[in-house]
Amino acid sequence: MKLNEIRDNEGATKNRMRVGRGIGSGKGKTGGRGVKGQTSRSGVAIKGFEGGQMPLHRRLPKRGFNKPNAIHLNEVNIGRIQEAVEAGKLDQGTPVTNEALVAAGVVSKPRDGVKILGVGELKAKLSFQVAGASKSAVEAIEKAGGSVTLLGAVAQA
C-alpha cells in the first residue's frame, strides 16, 4: 500500500447536495426549505420553541448551586513533590509554599492555595506551608522528618 493509494471506504462520504440550482435539479426553487414562513428564511433560531407550549427547559425545575466564594485549590501528590526535589527544582532548605510550587513548575497557576495528597513516597525532609493536607500526606511528611503548617481560613475548606 502506498500513500497515493489510500481511499475512504466505499459509501463513507456523500457528495454535497447543491440546492437552489433550478427546478429541473429536484432541489431548486425553494431549495428544500418548504414555502414561506420564518424557517424558510435565514437567521432562524427557534430550537427550543414548542409552538407556544411551555418549553422543556422551562418546565423542568432548576437544580444545583454554584457557591460564589468557593475555594479552588491545586491538588499535588507528595510523589510529584519528591520528583521536583530530585530534579533540583525545589530546595530542601526553604518551605514549600504555593508560590514555590508555581516557580518550580509543579503547578501551573497559583489558584487559592495548595492541598497536599498522599500518593507516592516522600524521602526529602521538607516543611510545608499549605492550605490543606490529607491525613496520609501529613503522616508521610512527618515520617520523612518534615512538618506541615496549615494556613488560615483556607485550612477549614
UniProtKB/TrEMBL annotation:
It holds the Pfam family Ribosomal_L27A. Residues 21-35 have a biased composition (Gly residues). It comes from the Bacteria. PROSITE patterns: RIBOSOMAL_L15. GO terms for molecular function: rRNA binding; structural constituent of ribosome. Part of the 50S ribosomal subunit. Binds to the 23S rRNA. This is Large ribosomal subunit protein uL15.
